[in-house]
Amino acid sequence: MSKTVLDNLTGMYFTLDAPDGSYGTGQVIRLAAEGVYFVRFDGNEVTLPMELVTVGEMLETTEEEYKLWRFFDTIEERDKWIEWLDAPSKPRVVSLVKPTK
Q: pTM to 2 decimals?
């Protein structure tokens, strides 16, 4: 019997949150072995070499249970997420003065 390995991540784009509040971006290149993927992080000026990452690492969360890795089908979806993430929040003004009649 042959064992089929399920590969749902190859070709996906990702963001990876860092402890300092920044994030990295890249793409899952291909399956290296069961549960292990070659990923390539985006470089500013040069293409960085591939790294091996396990599915377990991709499932890690912060102490507050926030996911560190986020996956996107297209680079456009990822760019929309980054645009939303980097957009300054709009301040809200709450009046503490009771309106008079």
A: 0.76
